[in-house]
């Protein structure tokens, strides 16, 4: 008989795996931040700062003691984190770096056959790459603004990139360069050998090693998953590779269980062998309300969030205004193990004001005084983190 995990237990497990079951208060050290990011596997980086950039938002949601300079220190001084791609641009524990090497090789092969990349180089790929390599080797880190300071280089057809900008991105995507620092939000690139510590840069895993490692690390962090969800965690192994890995994994690595979705339907999935022990140990999430980033790993898979939590979430920043259902930058609200509604916040830094622009509770979620007090407390925490002086509500508070 296949063991079954109830929906209530599934939600608790999933929140615990995503570091959202622990109380987020208290101080956070640099070591603690390193441990938090390794627990998550990676943290997505994004530039939108309507409230706060995604990486800072994700970390503050889990640890209110987090401060932005801590992340900069780990990236640029300690070098315990590096920047590259998972499903999108992310900060990643540097000890994972060897398993990105097969990805670099695969990326180079894909770029070689890409019409878009060929157009970006304007037919000068080899020459431009050699020029950029030499410049960085001899003169140190550069950013895209440094390589064409007079804007006199012919721009390609793709987003106005110059060949030099394309060269920097190519050398980063394929592993010769690494991001050494940020100037504002612009990347500064240097030789990977001057950024990534030798103990992480020198190992040479095979492609098969990478598939095995990424699948093991994914199921460790998700607890339960389909083979496509295993593949999608880091987006390093292909779905077919993850499917074959799951099929071949022995009972000491994977087991099959049934999970109950929010609508009562049941699905069989793969799980860690100790999944039932993890379920029993998963704590009740705190009563505090937390506002999740649209890029939070817990809700990154929108279909999974709907299956597990019965919450239909779509990020509408890139949807034309006339077609939005909710708003430009709307955040899910998490209370205990439930997604109870949505809130739209905007930081007006020019007038030091945090505006609550929209507020919606889910059906059958009441705007009780205690719940609204918890929501107000979370708004206040975000006001303080953003360094703003006041909060204004332009949204109705009695919806639900």
Written overview of the protein:
It is a single chain. With 400 residues, the protein is an alpha+beta fold. The chain contains 16 helices and 15 strands. The strands form four sheets. A five-stranded mixed sheet has the order 11-12-13-14-15, covered by helices on one side. Strands 1-9-10-8 form a four-stranded mixed sheet. A three-stranded antiparallel sheet has the order 2-4-3. α7 packs across α9 (163-173), α11 (207-222) crosses α12 (227-234) and α12 (227-234) packs across α13 (239-248).
TL;DR?
The chain is an alpha+beta fold and 400 residues long. It has 16 helices and 15 strands.
Shape: globular
SS-based class = alpha+beta
**Describe the biggest sheet?**
5 strands, mixed
In which range does the helix fraction lie? 40-55%
The gyration radius over C-alpha positions equals 23 Å
